[in-house]
Amino acid sequence: MTRHLLPVALAAAIAFPALASAADTQPPPRIVVSGEGEATAAPDMAILTLSVMREAETARAALDANNDAMAAVIAAMKSTGVADRDLQTAGIQINPRYNYTNKADGSQEAELVAYQVTNTLSVRVRDVDKTGDILDRAVSLGVNQGGGIAFTNDDPKATITEARKKAVADAIAKAKTLAGAAGVSLGRVIEIADQNVTPVPMPMNAKAFDAARAAVPVQAGENAYTVQVTVTFELK
């Protein structure tokens, strides 16, 4: 009888260490927190969106007039120190313009009256102090649409690094607070994941071209760079 029970007892003795080993491999308790950090920097570059629109009876005449006006604008940009690499055509549109008249039967009759050609230029101004003067010269030479301005930074790496450090410090502070409230202490950091929030450059709208006669007053302000991180800690 004893001889038959021995294999069963031996199997049980082998199984218990295996269960204990499985329990030992369970991951320790952990906490996951998020942190956010922000750093600011004064813009060192302005991006202008300037458009020239010309109208004529034929598309050819409208395009020729537009070409002359845009060529003058580009030459003025270069004369103020804007490099070729900072001038980029953003789009050219040729559109017919119609006059619509109501007929007796309730329908409308379309009459082609002109063609409109719009040429849009994107300009990177690396000397922010010149932004107002460049806008004024562009308007004087024929820019009559657009006027969007965005202030940005050519190389924001150092500012983003500062924001990233603040985000990690914020996450650590939150984790300590939560762990203390729960009566436990923080262990080692298991994982850190960060997500850069690319800032939207500070926009400014400059629509009042017809009234512009002196250098356009602009304020660059500052750009904010925000970084969010997620940190996982062990709990002791």
TrEMBL record:
<keyword id="KW-0732">Signal</keyword>
<protein>
    <submittedName>
        <fullName>SIMPL domain-containing protein</fullName>
    </submittedName>
</protein>
<dbReference type="GO" id="GO:0006974">
    <property type="term" value="P:DNA damage response"/>
</dbReference>
<dbReference type="Pfam" id="PF04402">
    <property type="entry name" value="SIMPL"/>
</dbReference>
<feature type="signal peptide">
    <location>
        <begin position="1"/>
        <end position="22"/>
    </location>
</feature>
<dbReference type="InterPro" id="IPR052022">
    <property type="entry name" value="26kDa_periplasmic_antigen"/>
</dbReference>
<dbReference type="InterPro" id="IPR007497">
    <property type="entry name" value="SIMPL/DUF541"/>
</dbReference>
